[in-house]
Amino acid sequence: MISINSTSIESSRIAQPIGTALDRFIKNNQSQFAFASGELSQLLRDIALASKVVNREVNKAGLIDIMGANGSTNNTGDQQQKLDVLANIRFTRALAKGGEVAALISEESESFVDLNNDAKYVIAIDPLDGSSNIDVNVSIGTIFSIYRRKTLAGMPIQEADILQKGSEQVAAGYILYGSSTMLVYTTGHGVNGFTYEPSLGEYFLSHPHMEIPLNGKIYSVNEGSANSFDDGMKGYLQYCKDCSYTGRYIGSLVADFHRNLLKGGIYIYPPTAKDPKGKLRLMYECNALAFVAEQAGGKASDGMGNRILDIQPTGLHQRTPFFVGSMEMVQKAESFYK
Ligand code: FDP
Question: Ligand 1 within 6 A of 222 CB?
């Protein structure tokens, strides 16, 4: 008979520990929130739950009829893919059922969605980012930003509740449906990453206290548009080449951002002839990633010296040029605009 005392169980190498589950982590860290009533914790759990459902659907996309275009375009003019629509439904339902969200802003809806007037939070979400990669089995993601509403719970939602600066986010993050599925988020106390264990149906803490390297050698930009870049961007691109940096562009913002967060690098979507204000959406793409980047020690700006988190949104689907990543790389890129 084998006898194992409690110390040897802790240090046993027979079974590797799998780490802290997301639910436990959220609970343990709840007291860090400014208003620790448990609602924000529940909201984060609702997002995690919906992401598991979306993950399941993304993983079997090739087997059932959910790939390809839906036949319509969303309010920003992108072709809606069936999975985009499905993911939007999954997240909206989970957040509506959870009851913690007063209003939801989504890439897929022209106006905001009124959910529960008695709730305290407003959420901006891109349910499935990187749509053009869905059909070809390349990593895609979900991006979310959470704000506390400005008006009192119980009142109808006002513009001031919706159009908040990124600096007002109380939590933000993303889910990456990649070679493994990860949820990365911040509540303003650093950044932590969780990897999904499909057989247990749970996210586990795999990347505690994520920090982006101060500098890096990866630049991520769609060089196909280079002819229409402004002189600042052309100059920086040449600088990257002169330094023999590595070009890596998946074309899925979450995946490109995540790689650069781990390895050090810069992601840029500059103004182009087609999108003179940049292509990416401030409220449900850039703000969340800017918050994560800053919390990890990085930087996010519009390239012209304006911090993304300080931009006052004037519309739900507003676009902005986006420069994000390692602190020194973003600073260097900005220097080409001075
Ligand atoms: P997509 O259009 O495929 O949804 O936000 C939209 C986004 O992808 C980002 O994920 C991605 O980084 C970027 O647009 C790709 O745009 P380009 O094809 O113009 O490079």
Answer: yes
